Amino acid sequence: DQQVKQNSPSLSVQEGRISILNCDYTNSMFDYFLWYKKYPAEGPTFLISISSIKDKNEDGRFTVFLNKSAKHLSLHIVPSQPGDSAVYFCAASWSNTGKLIFGQGTTLQVKP
Amino acid sequence: DVKVTQSSRYLVKRTGEKVFLECVQDMDHENMFWYRQDPGLGLRLIYFSYDVKMKEKGDIPEGYSVSREKKERFSLILESASTNQTSMYLCASSLWASGNYEQYFGPGTRLTVT
Predict the structure, then answer these.
(1) In this structure, are residues B21 and B6 in contact, taking their beta carbons and an 8 Å threshold?
(2) What's the pLDDT at A97?
(3) Which residues of A touch B50 (CB under 8 A)?
(4) Do the Cβ atoms of B110 and B10 come closer than 8 Å?
(5) pLDDT given for residue B2 in this prediction
(6) Contact A99/B102 with Cβ under 8 angstroms?
(7) Which of A52, A54, A75, B19 has the maximum number of C-beta atoms within 10 A of its C-beta?
(8) Vertex B111: Cα angle to B52 and B106 (nearest 5)
(9) Quick one: which of B90, B106, B77, B103 has its CA closest to A100?
(10) CA A44 to CA A88: how far, in whole Å?
(11) Distance CA B22, CA B6 (A)
């Protein structure tokens, strides 16, 4: 039972354009969401997060949007850069458990 | 900067061998986690620990055990390695604090069981 789903295994965009990565979840108890970025042969690194009391959080080129009614979140990267090419995981947590449930990941390729 | 280190980057073991993967964090974090990452499946939680000598099963604990004798160290043990345990293993740690969810990951161990 996949509680956090990233339905697009891969995404390719041109440098300078917007990248939009999507994530859906099924558990309405989730109250915190995170995005991680992973380069090959490295561990995931934290990118940006959002609490369920917000619908948007922005950090530089990265913005996360949360639509609770649709149980959907998205990560926008503007403008995309070749160095953004990586695997992106969304993750969800609840009730201060400290545990994260991860999606399957989306591989982003930004072409120069 | 939080640093999470894992004992090996690459490991090749034979079926039936006992395998130890070690993880050390230097930030005095209470929580530690072991995940495995497989293509198309994302990161799946194997075991986690909230404190020394405490452990809880994650989503896929079968075939694995863990040990946490010191706060900074969390070991994953494959009692009898099998080919379906070939995977990337990732260790993570986090601070036990209200509203804190961020986990810090090590570089991973690519384990191949032949």
Answers:
(1) yes
(2) 77
(3) 98
(4) yes
(5) 65
(6) no
(7) A75
(8) 45
(9) B103
(10) 9
(11) 6
Among A88, A96, A106, the residue to mutate for chain B (most B Cβ within 10 A): A96
Q: Which two tokens stand for residue B60?
A: 């896929």
Q: Is the link from the previous residue into A82 a cis peptide, with omega within 30 of 0? A: no
Around Cβ A90, how many Cβ atoms within 10 Å?
A: 29
Q: Which amino acid does the sequence have at B40?
A: G
Tokens of B113: 């069981």
As given in the structure block, the two tokens for residue B51 are: 């404190």
Question: Beta strand pairing status for A4-5 and A101-102?
Answer: unpaired
pLDDT digits (tens, 9 = 90+) for B56-107: 999 999 999 999 999 999 999 999 999 999 999 999 999 877 677 899 999 9
Quote the minimal CA–CA distance from A41 to chain B in Å: 7
The residue among A5, A33, A14, A4 whose CA lies nearest residue A112 is: A14
Q: How far apart are CA A101 and CA B108, in angstroms?
A: 18
Burial of residue B23, with CB atoms counted within 10 A of its CB: 0-12 exposed, 13-18 middle, 19 or more buried = buried
Chain B interface with A: residues with Cβ < 8 Å = 4, 9, 31, 33, 35, 40-45, 48, 50, 58, 90, 92, 94, 96, 98-108
- Sign for the pseudo-dihedral over CA of A80, A44, A41, B42: negative
Comparing alpha-carbon positions, the chain B residue that sits nearest to A44 is B105
